[in-house]
Amino acid sequence: MSDYETVPAEVDDEEEIPTDHPRYTDLVTRHRIERGVEAGITHLQGMHAEGRGSAFDYLLGEETIESADDAERAAAAQLLLAERPVLSINGNVAALVPREMVELAAAVDADLEVNLFNRTPARIEAIADHLRAHGATEIKGLEADARIPALEHQRAKVDADGIYAADVVLVPLEDGDRAEALAAMGKTEIVIDLNPLSRSPQVADVPIVDNIVRAIPNVTAHAEDLLEAGLTTAELESIVAEFDAERALEAAERRIREGV
Ligand code: PTJ
C-alpha cells in the first residue's frame, strides 16, 4: 500500500492531510468545503461547484498559468484605482479563503460583502461570524437594503452602500445571471472562475481563470508590489488597459483543451 492510500477517509483536521500528497491542494480544498457545509457556511450546491472547479483545475495543471497571473495583476491595479471597491463573499469563498479575503480587502482598501445565491439569515450570520474569526471587522451584506435590478428576490439582495454603490466588484465563483446583472448595472467586474466558458468570466472586465486558493493571495501580492513601486494613476490605468480579457480566456481554454 502506498503512503497516499493511507490518507484517512475521514479527515477531522486539515493537518492530517499529508503535504507531499500529489493532490494536496485538491484534498485541502475538498476538506474546507465539507467543513463549510457542516458549519452551515457553504450550501450543499457548493460541493457541486467545487467538483466542477476541481475538474477544470486538473486540466489547467493545478497552477496559475501566465494569462491568469496577468489577470491577477490587472485585477490588483483595477482594485487600487477603484473609488468604492467591494469584494463579494459567498459560501464557497468563505470556506476556502476567509483570511485571504480579509487580507486582500486591507491591501486595496475594499469592503467585504456577503452576497449569497441561496440566501438565508442563518447562512449570512454563520459566514459573517466566520469572517470575523478570521480578522474581519466590518462586513456588509447583512442589511441588504437594495436590490440588483432584473434578478429574482433573494439572490438580488445587496447593501445600498456596498455592492449597489460599488464601482469595482470582485465576484469569485459567481452564478452567471448575477454576473450579467451586475455588468448591466455598469460595474467593473473582476470574476474568478476555473471554467473559462462559464458566463461569469465571459461578461467580466477582468476574468481570472485560476483556483481561488491561488488567485486571491496572488492578487494581494500584486497589489502590495504595485503600492510599493508607487505607481501613478496613469501607470495603473495602463496596466488595466493592456490586459486583454478575450485573449486571457482563449489562453485558458487552449490550456484546458490542448494542454498548451
Ligand atoms: O453560497 P451561495 O449560496 O452564494 O452559492 C454559491 C455557489 C458556488 C453554490 C453558486 O454561486 C453556484 O451555484 O455557482 P455555480 O453556478 O456552480 O458556479 C461556480 C463556478 O465556480 C463554476 O464555474 C466552477 O467551475 C467555479 N469554481 C468552483 N470552485 C472553484 C471555482 N473557481 C475558482 N476556484 C475554485 N476553487
Q: Short description, anyone?
A:
By secondary structure, the chain is of the alpha/beta class. The chain has helices at 24-38, 45-60, 66-81, 91-96, 98-108, 121-133, 176-184, 199-203, 212-228, 233-242, 245-258; strands at 85-89, 111-114, 139-140, 146-147, 157-158, 168-172, 188-192, 206-208.
Structure characterization notes:
The chain has 260 residues and is α/β, with parallel strands linked by helices. It folds into two domains: 3-59, no CATH class; 66-258, Rossmann fold. The chain contains eleven helices and eight strands. The strands form two sheets. It has a six-stranded parallel β-sheet with strand order 3-2-1-6-7-8, with helices on both faces. Helix 6 (121-133) links the parallel strand 2 (111-114) and strand 3 (139-140). Helix 1 (24-38) runs antiparallel to helix 2. The longest helix has 17 residues, at 212-228. The radius of gyration is 18 Å and the shape is globular.
Residue runs with pLDDT of under 50 for 5 or more positions: none
Helix vs. strand class? alpha/beta
What is the CATH C-level name of the largest domain?
A: Alpha Beta
Shape estimate: globular
Q: What would you report as the Rg, rounded to the nearest angstrom?
A: 18 Å
CATH architecture of the largest domain: 3-Layer(aba) Sandwich
Number of helices: 11
